[in-house]
Structure formats: structure tokens, C-alpha cells
């Protein structure tokens, strides 16, 4: 174990190296490009035993990862924003083919107009394709989550691809101390349930008729349900091996006696924790629930964590047009069969890189800014 000062992108690259990835396929896009640049240097220096495939588009990058995974290789790619949107067709393919690929997404707004700054709209727009989605608050979490994502994705009860998401520039290009562990203690070599075998070839039809397609999608749905239990198991194993806790599902901060809760995901959670501390100094019993796993969404965990809370303020760094913030939607749905639901308010913040400072959370909770679209800029 050693500690290094790394950007979020570098942390992702080191995690890929130490996770024993066999194939990396990528096409550059801001702000995720340095992930693959770092990996390319590792491969060139002989520090990483992997095949690096540079292709002509993000669509091809995901296609190559799918082929590599079906061939029995542990596969990885990185992207952002429009690159993720360009992959859309193949994201579905990766899920339906049950390929446990891991992809880091340096979250960035989608244009036009062109905007390279952070919000979560890119990954949230892919929420229904079937990928596991994990959101990070720090560079250490990026490193840990890549390895844990492989452990979950490759589990025989899951077999689904996973995104590890983190705010572009806010984390991707900001340096933090990161503890680099020997991840082989957590991850064995990838042993696929099925792979292409040229010595024993098989033929698969490319058409899935109605009598099979619904069963296919149902099996993916059930795998998401099982994934939460697998995540809990991986959390425990990770903690035992590396002597630190990295949750994959949710994090609670000062929620024990809270009557008011803030709910967030991603890097803005750090500012929300400062807000909680400041509200506590003013005798407002606030706490934070941070969502780590958006897909599968941990409804039971959420309801349990917010038991006894009177008011909940959900801060989304994305929005479903014509509706509400995506986490706000999911959280309200989690309480639909609950005998006692708190008052739940939704806030849309930080789109296109708009700064989200602790004062925003404090002013919303204190009633000085109405919930909904929080357009105010704190100077």
C-alpha cells in the first residue's frame, strides 16, 4: 500500500491497472481523456499488461469492449457526455449480452450549446438501459469503486456492466491523496460463465422473438435486484481486506437524530456535509443521505435511513424534462408503500457546472430559497 496525490482520472487509471484489466478500448473526449492517456503510458512503460485499442468513435469503443468481454477478457473504457450518448445503442447490447464491462464516466453537461462543465445529465440520461450506476464523492472512492464494480459486475448472480461516475473537472482534474492498494486481494482473474471458444464454436441467432425477449429483460431486472445484496457483500469484503469502509449503496452523515435530511449524489455531497455542520451549529438537526448506487436504486435502504425524518430536501444535478430531478423521482417512489412518509422537496442545482456551495443547501433548508430550480448564484 502507498499513498499518491492523484487526479480523479489518474485514480481511475491506477484502479484499472491494479484490477487486472486485459483490454482497454477508448476514444478521447473531455474531461475523461486523461484516464486513457495515463493507461497508455502505463502500457508503454510495461507497467500494465493489457491490450490498448484506440478506435474511431465511442460507439466502436464500447463495441470492442463487448467483443473483448465475450472473448473472456476483463474490459474497460472511459467516456463523458456526448461520448456516452454516442454509445447508447451499444450500452443496450452490453447489458443484453450480459458482459460485465466497467466504464468510468467523468460527468459533463450535454449540449448544444457546448458546455464542458459538470452535471450528471449524461449518465442520468442512460438510467434505463440496464447498467449499474455508482456515483463518487472523492478520488479515493473512484479508485475503490472501479475495483468493487468489477467484483459486483462479474458475480454470477449479477453479470451486468457498471458505470463508475464522477463530476467532470471537480474530481476528474482535481488532485487528492489516494491510497493505492493491491486490488488483487479483492479480485481474482476474470472467469466468465460463457465465452467465445474457437475450438468449440457455437452459433447464436441475432433475433430475439417476443416469446423470449421479455424473459431476457426480466432476467436483467432480477439481476439488478440481486446486485444490492452482492454490493453489501463486496463492501464487507473490501472493508476486511483494506481496513477502510467504502459503501457502494448509500452513506449516512449525522442522520442519527436528524429531523431534516439533505439527499445528494456525487461531488456536491462534500458541500452538503459542510452545510449540515453549519445547520447543526444553528440548532437545526440536519443530516445527509448520499446516494452511491443510483442503479439499482436502493429504495429499502433509503426508507430505513430516513425513518423518523420529518423533511427531506433532494438536490439533483440533473433533471428529467417535463418532470423532476431523477433522484427526487426515485426517492418519492421509494415511499409509496411506506406507512409514514416525510415531506419531500426537490431541488435542481448545478447544471452546466453552476457552482453549488454549502450556502445553497443551508438557505434552502432554512426556507430562504424555495425548492424547485435553484437558480441563485452564491458569491
Q: What does this 3D model show about the protein?
A:
This protein is an alpha/beta fold. It has 2 domains: 225 residues, Thiamin diphosphate (ThDP)-binding fold, Pyr/PP domains (Rossmann fold), CATH 3.40.50; 123 residues, Rossmann fold (3-Layer(aba) Sandwich). 37% of the residues lie in helices and 19% in strands. It is built from 12 helices and 15 strands. Strands 3-2-4-5-7-6-12 form a 7-stranded mixed beta sheet, sandwiched between helices. The radius of gyration is 20 Å and the shape is globular.
Q: What attributes does this structure have?
A:
Rossmann fold, single chain, 12 helices, alpha/beta, seven-stranded mixed β-sheet, 2 domains, six-stranded mixed β-sheet, 379 residues
- CATH fold-type name of the largest domain: Rossmann fold
Per CATH, the superfamily of the largest domain is: Thiamin diphosphate (ThDP)-binding fold, Pyr/PP domains
Order of helices and strands: EHEHEHEHHEHEHEEHEEHEEHEHEHE
Roughly what is the average pLDDT, rounded to an integer?
A: 96
Secondary structure layout:
Elements: E1 2-7, H1 8-18, E2 23-26, H2 33-44, E3 51-54, H3 58-70, E4 75-79, H4 81-86, H5 88-96, E5 102-107, H6 121-124, E6 132-135, H7 139-153, E7 162-167, E8 175-180, H8 210-242, E9 250-253, E10 260-264, H9 268-281, E11 286-291, E12 293-295, H10 299-305, E13 311-316, H11 326-334, E14 343-348, H12 358-365, E15 372-373
Parallel strand pairs: 2-3, 2-4, 4-5, 5-7, 6-7, 10-11, 10-13, 13-14, 14-15
Antiparallel strand pairs: 1-8, 6-12, 9-11
Helix pairs in contact: 1-2, 1-7, 3-5, 7-8, 9-12, 10-11
Amino acid at each position: 500500500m502507498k499513498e499518491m496525490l492523484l487526479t480523479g482520472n489518474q485514480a481511475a487509471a491506477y484502479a484499472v491497472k491494479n484490477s487486472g484489466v486485459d483490454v482497454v478500448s477508448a476514444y478521447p473526449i473531455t474531461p475523461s481523456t486523461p484516464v486513457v492517456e495515463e493507461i497508455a503510458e502505463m502500457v508503454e512503460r510495461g507497467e500494465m499488461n493489457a491490450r490498448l485499442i484506440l478506435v474511431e468513435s465511442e460507439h466502436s469503443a464500447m463495441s470492442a469492449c463487448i467483443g473483448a468481454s465475450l472473448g473472456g477478457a476483463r474490459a474497460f473504457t472511459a467516456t463523458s457526455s456526448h461520448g456516452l450518448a454516442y454509445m447508447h445503442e451499444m450500452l443496450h447490447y452490453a447489458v443484453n449480452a450480459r458482459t460485465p464491462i466497467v466504464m468510468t464516466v467523468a460527468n459533463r453537461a450535454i449540449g448544444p450549446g457546448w458546455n464542458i462543465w459538470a452535471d450528471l445529465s449524461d449518465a442520468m440520461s442512460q438510467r434505463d438501459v440496464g447498467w449499474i450506476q455508482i456515483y463518487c464523492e472523492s478520488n479515493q472512492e473512484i479508485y475503490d469503486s472501479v475495483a468493487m464494480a468489477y467484483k459486483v459486475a462479474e458475480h454470477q448472480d449479477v453479470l451486468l456492466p457498471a458505470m463508475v461516475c464522477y463530476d467532470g473537472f471537480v474530481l476528474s482534474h482535481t488532485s487528492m491523496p489516494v491510497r493505492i492498494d493491491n486490488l488483487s486481494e479483492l479480485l481474482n482473474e476474470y472467469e466468465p460463465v460463457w465465452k467465445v471458444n474457437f475450438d468449440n464454436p457455437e452459433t447464436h441467432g441475432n433475433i430475439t422473438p417476443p416469446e423470449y425477449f421479455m424473459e431476457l429483460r426480466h432476467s436483467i431486472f432480477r439481476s439488478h435486484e440481486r446486485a444490492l445484496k452482492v454490493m453489501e457483500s463486496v463492501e464487507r469484503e473490501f472493508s476486511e481486506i483494506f481496513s477502510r469502509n467504502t459503501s457502494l449503496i448509500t452513506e449516512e452523515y449525522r442522520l442519527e437524530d436528524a429531523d431534516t435530511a439533505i439527499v445528494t449524489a456525487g461531488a456536491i455531497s462534500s458541500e452538503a456535509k459542510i452545510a449540515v455542520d453549519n445547520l447543526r451549529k444553528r440548532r437545526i438537526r440536519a443530516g445527509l443521505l448520499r446516494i452511491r448506487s443510483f442503479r439499482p436504486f436502493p429504495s429499502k435502504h433509503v426508507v430505513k435511513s430516513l425513518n423518523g425524518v420529518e423533511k427531506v430536501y433532494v438536490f439533483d444535478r440533473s433533471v428529467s424534462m417535463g418532470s423532476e430531478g431523477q433522484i427526487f423521482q426515485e426517492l418519492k417512489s421509494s415511499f409509496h408503500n411506506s406507512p409514514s412518509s416525510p415531506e419531500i422537496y426537490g431541488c435542481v442545482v448545478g447544471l452546466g457546472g453552476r457552482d453549488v456551495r454549502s450556502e445553497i443547501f443551508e438557505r434552502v433548508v432554512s426556507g430562504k430559497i424555495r425548492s424547485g430550480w435553484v437558480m441563485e448564484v452564491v458569491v
